[in-house]
Fold these 3 entries.
Entry 1:
Amino acid sequence: MSIRSPLTSATFVAGLLAACGPAASNDAPDAPAPTAPVAEAVEAAPVETVADAPAPQTASRPLPNEGYDWDTRLNAEGRARSMVLAYEVPDTDDQPLNLSCEEGGRRIFAGTQTSGTDVRSVTLASEGIGRTYPVKEAVADELGGGQYVTVELAGNDPTLEAFRDSGWLRMTVEDHTIDMAAQPSSKARQKIATFMAFCNAPYVRP
């Protein structure tokens, strides 16, 4: 989407005002024509180059993908309970993204399979809020090729909070983007909210 420059708009309006100004009287001495005000140049904002640069505002809510939805799994074994929130086709290995955390840990790990072997970052976005996260861990997939990469997010990360409220998340890896929206007829949005509350719950010492 192109953005009209404030300088261009101001100069155009000033030109219209000058052209429509009152004509000089026949009895009055000639006077120099009024000079249109010159709009002050607006300095362009610097381009974000840091890893957590905001994503551009999305125009509309993406449609759900047929067969895919968000689902949770609770693991109550071990010292601390943990939960997984996965975007997947039920009862298959088709899982573009999964999020996981320990109860009250306030850290969330996002994992995805890649085709490349040198993936350095994963970009997540929702409702115009997004960041690019550096890969924390990469494990080679000896059978299928590529890697399984993991990034770490804070429990109160703005992108995840936007995802909790909207029910959809956009992921970009290796120039490939996928929109992951909850099915409107399922309980997926409730499960997303439950997962976020679980990850950020106050820690209770066992």
Entry 2:
Amino acid sequence: MEFNSVDVKEELLQFLKTGFKDAKVRMNVLKSDPQTDAELPCVGINRVSDDEAAHIMGDYGGSDFDRDNLQYAEIHSTHFQESMEVRIWHTNADERERAYRILKALLMLFRPVSVQKGLLSFSMGAGKDESDFTGQVTPFPVYWSSIVITYLNPLDVQTTEHVDAISGFTSRGGVSIGG
């Protein structure tokens, strides 16, 4: 089995690392929220939802037969409506705001890159500022801001099986041909 889908978390992680570095902003980029204060300031990328959006009867996309290698392949396809929360974490509210504005600009630049990789309907929303001084979120004062990106991500799955060549057969009348 082979499958093709965009690993948005990894693509976004690499894009944001480069983007913040190019903007000369020290920012860790993680595939989750920070676990220690040493990881701050940072961007945490978390999956919010991953729902099938385009279910069609059987999701059958076609088949192919490779005569040279005697392989039969079937392709099954669908789209998933995915959402990722991209969250800035900082110990300084003013710096959080500056980083949030850079993040929003970087996400705008990521949109055409994601479309080239196969994503559809890329949008951003749900920006929100929050903070905690009680120690319930972290044992130190922390500020965060979130943007949720939503998009359609295609998933293509191909199954392949080797078939044996027919070397002969026997008819109902008992006549054998070949093998």
Entry 3:
Amino acid sequence: MNEPNKILVVVSISFSLFFALFALELFSDMQQGPYFVDTSLIKSRYEPLHAVDVSIGQMEADVQKGMARFDDSLSKLMDSLANGNRKDGELLELLNMESNVARHKMLDSVRIIADMKMREAYGYLDRDIARYCKRYGVEVLFGTASNTIVYGSGEKSDLTPGLLRYMGGMVD
């Protein structure tokens, strides 16, 4: 082999080696899944879920205030009936049963409204996650439960900050 051919071979091997290392570096930086998001962080910072939590907390506080007023009125009425005759005693027992039913109805109405609001907020969350995955080509996105990772590890796999920015639902 003559000198110019040796130089050409060395140069071509050098270029091949350079591009092979470049491609290896490029592919090592691009992780093709699996991806995960920190479910508890998403739930705590996604605006529609946060708004529902605040709303439910307010409804529960209102029910507690209403029940306190109801109990106060009921105890005054029961005190006035307790000093009466047998017929008043039967009325007192009936009033006590009705008060228990009224308490359960108040709590059930809050639970039903809270369930409806939560379903709606989770529908928004599902929609936004689906849009995010389509936009960024994520075929499978795993979540975490109780801070236990179902699948995924490392910073390259965790898409939680990007998803939160995309949804615009950051709540501090």
